[in-house]
Here is the input.
Amino acid sequence: MKLWFFALNILMLMFMAIPMNMFSVAPFYQVIYDSIFLCGHFILGITAVLFYLYWLFVAIYLLKSER
Here is the structure.
């Protein structure tokens, strides 16, 4: 079960990263940073924070479920 959960999350991360790799002028984190702070898209900032919190909780789950 844990392996399937991990594989599904890696697949999801890959599908989310594909559009970000389409930028050839600037790295994807610069595009996100400029969009949040220069354009005022704070919903994107909240989404980014929730994305990293999700991966933190996935890592905690996978580490705790080994025991």
About this structure: The longest helix spans residues 42-64. The chain has a mean pLDDT of 81.
